Structure prediction request, 291 residues.
Amino acid sequence: MASLAQWIEGARPRTLPNAVAPVIAGTGAAAWLHAAVWWKALLALAVALALIVGVNFANDYSDGIRGTDDNRAGPLRLVGSRLAAPRSVLAAAVASLAVAGLAGLALALTTAPWLIAVGAACIAGAWLYTGGSRPYGYSGFGEVAVFVFFGLVAVLGTQYTQALRIDWVGGALAVATGALSSAVLVANNLRDIPTDAESGKITLAVRLGDKRTRVFYQLLLGVAAVLTLALSAATPWCLVGLVATPLALRAAKPVRTGQAGPALIPVLRDTGLTMLVWSITVATALAATAR
Prediction:
């Protein structure tokens, strides 16, 4: 039986910045429009956190029962390591996704009912990433889904639920956040290329190969940097987001220098920290200088 600490590790706390950063960025975009609403921001945060924990447990369950996690170099997986019964991990996934659904329903009903359809799509995307008979995560579309759901949808959705409109600032924040969030998954899949290829999990990293995946990861970081410069057109104070550059360089170093296996695990943490620091600083700059 898995301990509490192992359940927490199984939830993959290193991925939580992927949930927190988009809400911060979206709230900063709403503040730029003089429309930040704190309780809606908290509801959006509840949706994002519950959704990503649900994704992680669903991934653990689906990969575990397929045998994909039987031999991996990454963080602990509960089913693959035989620490928890598959049905227990499945229950944790369903419970987390249910919490995300309830919080999202409350947010939609207080904003615009059509957002319920968006929320349903997010939950379906969470499950079908590695679940179902034809999981899209096994066909190389995981990074696209992360970009859409934890970039475009999360940031612009957070801005819209508070401001009831979106603008180019929110769009730039959404693309930059999506790029950084996708970079986390790229780093994860880069580490797992050998085991994923062996188990038949054809991720984008498996399709690109080791060398091109490393280039792709660094390009995603570059997209965020370029968009930070572009956001200075809204307010030059957005350039404060470049304080995350040292973290980005630290994250990229193992990728750039050809490290493999467990040596790539810190890349997930450092990429997530880059995204979190970037979102906090840019959102604060937007909120402080809104006209």
About this structure: The first helix runs from residue 4 to 10.
